[in-house]
Every structure is written in structure tokens, then in C-alpha cells.
Amino acid sequence: MVSLTSRMKSILLLLLEADYSRPITIKEIAKKLNVSSRTILRDMPSIEEWLNQNKISFIKKPGVGLLLGENLESKNKLKRFLEQQSVPKDYSPEERKYVIIAELLQIKEPIKLYYFSNLLGVAEGTLSSDLDKVEEWFQNYNIKLIRRPGFGIYVEGKETDFRKAMVNLLYENLDEGQLLQIIKDNVGNTSNSKGRIEINARNRLLSLIDKNTIENLEKLVYAAEKKMNLQLADSAYVGLIVHLALALQRLKNNEKITINKDLLEELRATQEYNMAKHLAKDISVLFDLEIPEDEIGYITMHLKGAKLRIDNKEEERLIIGKFELIKVAKEMIRIAEEETGYALQHNEKVLLGLVNHLGPAISRLKMNLDIRNPLLSKIKENYPTIYKISEKSAQVLKEFLNVEIPESEIGYIALHLGAAIENEREKEQRLYRVAVVCASGIGTSRLLAARLEKEFKNIQVVDIISSIHLDDKLLREKNIELIISTIEMESSIKTVYVNPLLLDEDKTKIEQALKELKEVTEKTEDMQEKKNFKDVLVLIEEYTKASIELLNNLSFYEKILVNDIEGLITKVAQIYADSDEQQKILEYELKRRERLGSTILNNKGIILLHCRSESIKKLQLGFVCLDKGIDYMFMGNRKERIDIAIIMLAPANCSKAYLEVVSEISRALIEKPDFVEAIKDCDKEQICIQISNIIEGFYYEKMNLLRGRKNEYEHTN
Description:
alpha/beta, Arc Repressor Mutant, subunit A, 6 domains, five-stranded mixed beta sheet, flat, disordered C terminus
């Protein structure tokens, strides 16, 4: 009597799908089951015998294929029968590898070979080959596979390496989406998920993390997010819960992690440590398990490397003051611009995105935490040029941190730079509408127009006119963006004067003009919805009020005595709040902002404290000079002496124009060394002069852009 195996059942189900018009071949069956044709041929005698036992007609058509010679009713009956049959699982070589790894990571004692032989249904010879692959996998994590004949097999290594191996074992077989679904379903029904391995093998992997543990941890992390007023990105949310679940399982088995004492000391000084401490306390109470301080340090490392979920407005707010990251990001963007020839340095979106990505990425790199990028292979395959450019840009990060940058992080950098590059490519494809003005005759004009369209693929000559018939209003109706003229003349439309023969220096002038047009377009993108003069006036009023408000609320405080950053924040809240209640609100907002990352001018002794708050009614820019400096841990790895605090405060519901004015001061801290030196020296007079110049330059730049909108309005009416 032939018994059904898992593979035989799969073959029979495929035969049921075949019919006289579409027989199925051995090769097709093998491909669908991801095995060799030889394996299927070995199973066919048993298949035929089973079909004979059950009196089912089996047809072999040489050179055509196989099928069952039964009617539809009989086939449906057989299908229902097969689906109800519970048969032993046949593991693929890859599944066997992962099952063995999962078992070895969980069981302390040596395991006999026959245990795996029975579990997986394979001979010991096959198992020996599987163990070679398992050993190779463990070597990636500095874990040693010990094979002792007659005694068994087991693994040796550091607890940190065991944890890393366990996490990666899960991520190799379940993507973040599946893990998130498992967490949200509290490890419910995962049968609909399709990973790299079948459900039986996956369930053995999920035994690494306990169902009830996941359920309770998910609630604790969610509560911690609310308490700290933060929102982790899905990847960070999943990563933290997986880490905590594995840590708890290991602690229950008395497998404790140790962390370098100097690193632990540095981590204690970070905002993330407080969150980790509160989380550990809640976990300890709920699970009745003591959480060692080394474990709290390890949780802190994961929190420091966690990416937050932020929207575009929050992204703009968070970038204010991230001086070191802005410098790194700007240099990375500059290299990408140099490599591509596209104007990327004026792209605020790519700067915002890259800066806010680099914060947690740098923390992970410095602490040697894994950076996973499920899109890496697709990025390298579909965008090889952008990936290569990102490799060069990543050298800036390598030099900044003095660590190797993994491909996964380069892939993330490629996503940010790639979006900007693709955007520039689209812009380059658009044609600039040009009018040619000549006084030498129609022949010369047409020759110049032909040369222009040949030399510049992004120029479309819309009109050829004489200087006598020049009419700006008519040209604007035709959406002319640029006039190229062989004679001097007056026009409100941007004009380039060239030689009729179009010399090399003329081409350079035209290229510069097109670049300027492009930059103006980019800078005025956020104003494109301003359709009439009234809207322009409203925006001018916003910038004017914001500039005046900032200049009117400039303040200086000297010889302020505090002991630490907490005391400094409390003092600032006392100074700028109007009541005890408002002080509590402001203090909370400032501390919340600090938790998102400190803002320190490296080696300058200057910290920036900033936030938007309901307790603030008007823009505030202040300079607090400390009587005695305070030590503060910067970027989690070194102490910085703080002597001066720059205070930037804005109302919670202030407009974008107000934030732009504040951002201009922040930008000057990076780009204007004289301004920083004046602050460092607490030179009130020089600080006031510098701020006045900064705001004046910003204001007139905005007015020029808006004046361009006004001229456009005038010439379309």
C-alpha cells in the first residue's frame, strides 16, 4: 500500500489541473514545485501505483504530457479528498537549513543527529550536507558550530552575536510587512503570508518569539510612543518589538547580554536612555523579570537608531539646527551634483529628507547595528548609475564617522538622491520657450534660430521678430520665457544678447540664463498657486511681519547659572513663559524637541534650543550666556562644553513664512562663520548687526521673487 507524501500530494493536485487540451509535462511540474525533473521522475512510479490502488485513470501522452482521464465530477471529488489529507511535510534544503539554525539557537544542550534526521525526514548523509551550509551561515555572525561524534552538535558564541543571528534569521524569512502583520495580529493566522519558506518551517522560526510576549510588548511600545509623544516608523516599530521579544526569551533562559562600560556611560547621558529605562521598568513589572542595566543600554542603542515617522511639515521643523548633519548632507549632495551635472544643491526637499534620514542611520552605524534594506537588490538592478553616484557621496559619511558604509545604507542614500536626480531629469526634458530678436534680416534670424535649436535640446524657438515689432505683452501671451537678441533693447522679459553667429561665449551666456530660469522656477514652486496680486500682497505682508517680529524680540541674557541641560531648559522656560502654567508647557515642548536630537555647534560651545509651542505668542530669538559652562553628551559619544544657548521659539500655529525667517538664522549658523564667532564672544553689537544683515538679505530675496510674480501678473493683464 503506497502512502502519500507531501510532494506526491502536490503532484496530484497539479495533474488535476491538466486536461486533454492542456496536458502537463514533467518539466512543468518540477518548475512549479521548485525541484529537479529527476526528483519528479523518481516519484512517478509511486504516483502511478497510488492512482491504480484508487482506480483513477492516468494518461501518459509521449512528447505531449500527463493528465488524469476522469470527468469533472470525479476530479472535484479527488481534489476534496486530497485537500483533507494530512501528510508528512517534505522540507526543501533551504527550509531544512533554517529549521536547524532555529533549533540550535534555542537549545543549549548538544543535539544528536538523529533528532534532526527524524524531525526533517532525511538521512544522516543529507543532514551532513545541510550542516555544512548551516556552519557557513553561522560564520557570518562569529558563531561556531561544534560537531562532536557521539555527543551531538551545538553552537558557541557571544550573546550579542546570538541576538543578531536570531533577528536576521527572522528577517531573512519574513519581510517587515509580514512581521508587522504578525505583530498586529499578535501572531495570529500567518497562513496567508508567503515568505521564502513554507508555513511549517515558518512556525518553527516564530517559536523564537512568544505569542503572548509579542501581544504585551506591542501594547507597551504603543503606550511608550504616546507617553513620549513620538511615532516610530513601521520598520523601527517592528525592529524594536522583535528585539524586545528576543531579549525577553533570552533573559528567561538566563542568557544575559553585556555592553562596554564606556559605551553604557555615554548612552546614560542620552534622551533615548530615559525612554529605554521607562520601557524596561514597564516590561519588568508586566513580565515579573528583572531587566539588567546592560539590557537597558542595548534598548537605548535601538531607540537611537530608530527612524521616526514624520510628515513634510514636521520634517521642515526638525531640520532647524542639525548643523553637523546639514554639513554632511550638503557635501553629499554637492558630490551628486558634480557627478550628474544637475543643480541639486538648491533642492530643499532632498536636503530635508537626507538630513532626517542620516540622524538614526549614523547612530546605527556608530553602534554597529544592522541596517536592513529590502529594496537594495532592486535599487542596484534598476538604478545602477544612481547607486554608483551614491557610493561616491557615501564617502563623505565614511570620512565623518570613520566606519565602512554598508551597501544597505548606500541604497537608502540612493533613494534620496535618486528622487532629486529623477526630478531634475524631468525638468531638463521640458522645453524653454524662446523668442529670437534680430535686426539683420529674416535670413540671419532663421539661421540663428536653427543654430539655437541644434545646440540646445531644451530650447524651442516659438517666434522670430524684429526689434521694431517687439511687444512684451504679446510675447507673454505666448508664454515666452527668454529672449535671445542680436541687438541691445529694453524688455521686461529676461534677455540674452548674442552675436548673430552664436559664438562660444554666447552659448555660455545662454546656458547661464537657462540655469537662472530653472533656479527661479524652483524657488517659486511654493508660490505657483498665488494667482493674483492680492495673494502676492498677503505673502509680502507675512514676510514683513515675521521679519519685524523677530527683530523686535531679540534678547540677551548673561551670567546665567545652571548645572546641566535640564536646568538650562527650565531656566529658558522661566525666562520666555508668561505664567507658571505656560512655563510647564514650554519646558515640556523644549524637552520633547531635545529628545528628537540635540542641536550643538561642534567645538563652538553653542547649543540651539528651539521649538514651536502654544505658550509662545510671538517669534523669539535669544542668546543665553552661561556664567559657568555645562558638560553635555553630544551625539552619544563625546562631551561638549556648552557656554552659550541660542533660543529660537515660535507660536505653535505660525505660518510657513515665519518658520522660513527662523530657518534663515539657523542656516546662517552653518554658512556665516563671522556670525558664529560673534555669538561665541557674546558680542551683542556684532550679533545685532549680523542678524539685521541676515534678515535684510532674506527679505529682499523674497521680495525679488515676489516682484517677479507681480511683473508676471501685470503683463498678463
